[in-house]
Specification:
The chain is 38% helix and 19% strand. By secondary structure, it is of the alpha+beta class.
Length: 670
């Protein structure tokens, strides 16, 4: 009884300390930091604007679990709202998700009924506006936050800081593999080491990233001069430096208590003691209050961990090295796969598709027919029924299921569920009312729907989807079968990449792999893949380049018979480019006023299909090229397969120098 009384007294003391000493004083020192516009107009108070904002913030928070950067817009005309978030590149997806969840709540509380706002949390930033800002540099209202402890030799220290930050700026801005992010350390004294980090939002061009960080370096020097640590908060970039290792992956060489970060806000010795009391006391209080939930939480976590372990074990089957293709009936882990929350029973799918009626068939995919269906809740779906004679067995099926379930991006088709029952292997996707891109693009009548604006939207959407797979998703993923028939179109002609059966995952720092089983589609495969079995992110870049040329010209690459000297669209485009007659490729359905832009896109396409994979740009560079005319494009080298005739593509190739087998799918419309 005495222990109980003492415990209650301790709790009362801690709570009293919190409310009397520290609460208001500390709130000003810690994130979130915010900048809210002064504009409050009818749009911000309008119900439809608020609905768009809520939807946007929800979507941003959802995507933070699978990406460290994302932008999106919601609404129509005057009620439209644009949003963007960025997490520091070293944080995990779980930490990014948690940070953005906090930021969405903070931005609503700190900036209510505002048309524009930005919030910075400890490891992330969130921004929205009723005016489009994506791809536009903004360095106004930069905020500097510094450590309360000053350095003893400010001139020497500031020179070291600026030099380090400028070196990192060049690395982040102009190194295409850096993902607009760089960190580094530099010795300062025998006991102290400077640690620094810079990062830009991914919508900026290299030059814009450089300008943003240079402005940030100037601002942090003027606002935080002499401080032993500081951060600069900008809408388009971020930088920070400290005399301790504050980011993951840094080697801690000096981390004494005096170096811990505290934002300057007129603190005192009393405040430090309050921080200590509150830190220890709050931790103790949380432990006590949550103790009764530990057992239940552990049980739930254990169950979830078990499921995640099953998924991880399956995904490991599909890392960059290929393996044998076992029969599905003997596939280990089948029961666990059926236990997944997205599993749909066969009876439901039979009912949805009217027993796979021919009248419900949408087309023929690479591995089997696709049917339209209606689930019991009224949702329209597309059901991919894998043929029992298909080359896609347990490996590819499980690959496609587990891969797509983990991917969330507006330009990737969404997998709603799947079914495995005896010989049936079924994938249930969201329904795309405008079918696949090849159906529209290569039909002279339907292609008239695709004006230049819609074609650019499709190209940019495909590029963003592939960029997500290569750099922004949880794993580095190579699609390996990007083509027009694997791009689906929604109601508004927005593209969604589909068919991940041939996709492969790269683990760790791997960037290239070799396979003995080459699968793909004639005309879209990179030469190093088709001839040597080597594939990398540059293989997808090649396929994207072919697809880009097809979209802007309205012509197929494969089966192209324009001249006897060029049997492919790529070869013919290269021939005309060198003859300075590339405008001959312009689709007659397009406006002649687009000539300059058309030539620029031909140029980008030819850069993507260069024979040497090293010469091809990354998808992040391609996205930047597609955004504006200010980017200087290098001269393309000769594409692969630009000369000579090719054998029929419905066959398997064998070569004396390799035992690889080449399985190539048809490019006929489905």
């Amino acid at each position: 009884m005495e222990h109980s009384t003492n415990f209650r007294q301790t709790l009362h003391f801690l709570l009293l300390c919190y409310f009397l000493f520290g609460r208001n004083d500390l709130a000003l020192a810690d994130p979130p930091y915010s900048v809210c516009s002064n504009n409050i107009n009818n749009n911000s108070l309008n119900t439809s604007f608020q609905t768009s904002l809520q939807n946007l913030l929800g979507s941003l928070a959802s995507n933070a679990s699978v990406s460290r950067y994302y932008n999106i817009s919601y609404g129509n005309e005057t009620d439209k709202v644009y949003g963007q978030f960025m997490c520091l590149d070293y944080v995990s997806y779980d930490d990014c998700h948690g940070c953005i969840l906090g930021a969405t709540q903070a931005i609503m509380n700190l900036c209510p009924n505002k048309t524009e706002a930005v919030v910075w949390e400890e490891v992330c930033q969130l921004r929205y506006s009723n005016v489009s800002f994506l791809g536009q540099l903004n360095v106004k209202d930069n905020i500097g936050k510094d450590n309360v402890i000053n350095i003893s030799e400010p001139v020497k220290f500031q020179a070291l800081v600026e030099n380090k930050l400028r070196n990192l700026t060049k690395q982040a801005a102009f190194n295409s593999s850096a993902n607009k992010y760089a960190t580094g350390d530099e010795p300062y004294t025998i006991d102290d080491t400077l640690y620094a980090l810079v990062q830009c939002t991914l919508d900026l061009s290299p030059d814009e990233c450089n300008k943003c960080l240079e402005a940030a370096i100037k601002d942090v020097a003027s606002q935080c001069y002499g401080s032993r640590g500081a951060r600069l908060l900008s809408r388009s970039c971020y930088l920070r430096y400290e005399l301790y290792a504050f980011y993951e992956g840094a080697n801690e060489t000096s981390a004494s208590p005096k170096t811990q970060p505290t934002t300057r806000s007129g603190g005192s010795g009393r405040k430090i003691w309050v921080i200590i009391v509150l830190t220890i006391g709050s931790a103790f209080l949380v432990v006590v209050l949550m103790a009764s939930f530990v057992y239940c939480g552990a049980m739930k976590k254990g169950t979830r961990k078990g499921k995640d372990e099953i998924l991880r074990n399956h995904v490991q089957l599909h890392n960059s090295g290929d393996s044998e293709n076992p029969d599905f009936q003997d596939f280990e882990g089948l029961d666990e796969l059926k236990a997944n929350d997205s599993y749909i029973d066969l009876v439901t799918i039979h009912s949805a598709t009217n027993n796979f009626s021919d009248s419900n068939m949408l087309g023929q995919g690479g591995f089997g027919p696709v049917y339209k269906g209606v689930l019991p809740d009224g949702k329209q779906v597309a059901v991919k029924r894998l043929s029992r004679f298909s080359e896609q067995g347990a490996l590819e099926f499980t690959n496609e299921v587990l891969l797509i379930l983990k991917l969330q991006h507006k330009n990737l088709v969404r997998l709603l569920g799947f079914c495995v029952d005896q010989q049936e292997q079924l994938l249930v996707y969201e329904f795309m009312p405008n079918s696949s891109l090849d159906v529209v693009l290569f039909d002279p009548k339907k292609r008239a729907q695709l004006n230049w604006s819609k074609r650019l939207n499709i190209i940019n959407g495909i590029a963003r989807g592939i960029l997500y797979l290569h750099e922004d998703s949880r794993l580095r993923i190579i699609h390996r079968d990007l083509k027009a028939s694997n791009v689906l179109l929604d109601f508004d002609m927005n593209p969604k990449i589909s068919d991940f059966g041939m996709a492969r995952i790269f683990a760790g720092a791997d960037s290239e792999a070799n396979t003995a089983r080459i699968v793909g589609t004639y005309g879209y495969m990179a030469p190093e893949y088709a001839m040597e079995g080597l594939y990398s992110i540059k293989s997808d870049v090649f396929s994207f380049g072919v697809l880009l040329l097809e979209i802007i010209t309205g012509r197929r690459n494969a089966g192209f018979n324009q001249t006897k000297h060029a049997q492919t669209l790529v070869a013919y485009a290269w021939h005309l480019w060198n003859e300075r007659n590339a405008l001959e490729l312009m689709d007659p359905l397009l406006n002649d006023g687009l000539m300059d832009e058309f030539l620029r896109f031909i140029h980008i396409g030819l850069l993507c299909v260069q024979e040497d994979a090293f010469d091809r740009p990354t998808m992040s560079s391609v996205v930047v090229m597609l955004k504006g005319e200010t980017v200087t494009l290098s001269q393309p080298q000769q594409p692969a397969f630009s000369m000579g005739r090719f054998t029929e593509h419905h066959q398997t190739f064998t070569r004396s120098c390799s035992t690889n087998g080449l399985s190539i799918s048809s490019v006929a419309p489905r």
